[in-house]
């Protein structure tokens, strides 16, 4: 059973989420504040966290940072905050997705399913278990990236995006394909997700992120990995 931790201080929304998730056979724990959320995350080890940013005791971004100190669990932010800098702050802290309130339950469940898929091990052919470049190495079986002798910490979403690109070196991967595989959506208006995450990957992997050597943008079409 997939276990979801809902971190939200609105009792009506919590009740709606719990009913909908349990009806689809998810296990659900709920926390009304950040401190309870961190305690439950450590005790219950959820498979996915749904997190409101406006909590009574701390900002949700601080909860994400605390979780990322020891866990790679996918974090779906549910927030009424619509400013792009708020979204970027949450994604930079380690969130995997950002869903603006109000949202449809169907979209939320699609995003949840995509988050669960990202954490499942995909079978890889032997030829693609390791990728070496002049600046970093990627072990696809161990889900590990090393740059300059040090492990590079990637969120599950960053990892999944990188994995799709590197297993097909030189091949253009379309925006639609990446959105469908990583987020479970294909709408072209979600391409800002890709821009944010590709920028994060470049900051972590490229020597000169402004002039990438490995993670190449094909404007209006998609992205390529050049090994």
TrEMBL record:
Modified residue annotations for 4-aspartylphosphate: 52
Domain OmpR/PhoB-type: 128-227
Domain Response regulatory, residue spans: 3-116
DNA-binding region (UniProt annotation): 128-227
Keywords linked to the UniProt accession: DNA-binding, Phosphoprotein
Cited PROSITE patterns: OMPR_PHOB, RESPONSE_REGULATORY
Family annotation (CDD domains): trans_reg_C (cd00383)
PANTHER family to which the protein is assigned, alphabetical: KDP OPERON TRANSCRIPTIONAL REGULATORY PROTEIN KDPE, REGULATOR OF RPOS
Protein name: Response regulator
């Amino acid at each position: 059973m997939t276990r979801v931790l809902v971190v939200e201080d609105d009792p009506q929304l919590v009740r709606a989420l719990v009913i909908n998730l349990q009806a689809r056979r998810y296990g659900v724990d709920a926390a009304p504040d950040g401190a309870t959320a961190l305690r439950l995350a450590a005790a219950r080890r959820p498979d996915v966290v749904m997190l409101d940013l406006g909590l009574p005791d701390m900002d949700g971004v601080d909860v994400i940072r605390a979780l990322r100190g020891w866990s790679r669990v996918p974090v779906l932010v549910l927030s009424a905050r619509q400013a792009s800098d708020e979204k970027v702050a949450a994604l930079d802290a380690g969130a995997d997705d950002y869903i603006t309130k109000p949202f449809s339950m169907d979209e939320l469940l699609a995003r949840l399913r995509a988050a669960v898929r990202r954490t499942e091990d995909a079978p890889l052919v032997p030829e693609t278990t390791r990728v070496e470049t002049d600046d970093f190495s990627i072990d696809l079986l161990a889900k590990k990236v090393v740059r300059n002798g040090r492990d590079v910490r990637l969120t599950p979403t960053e990892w999944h995006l990188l994995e799709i690109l590197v297993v097909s070196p030189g091949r253009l991967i379309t925006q639609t394909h990446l959105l469908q595989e990583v987020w479970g959506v294909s709408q072209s208006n979600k391409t800002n997700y890709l821009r944010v995450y590709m920028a994060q990957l470049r900051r972590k992997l490229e020597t000169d992120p402004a002039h990438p050597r490995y993670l190449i943008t094909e404007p209006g079409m998609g992205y390529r990995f050049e090994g």
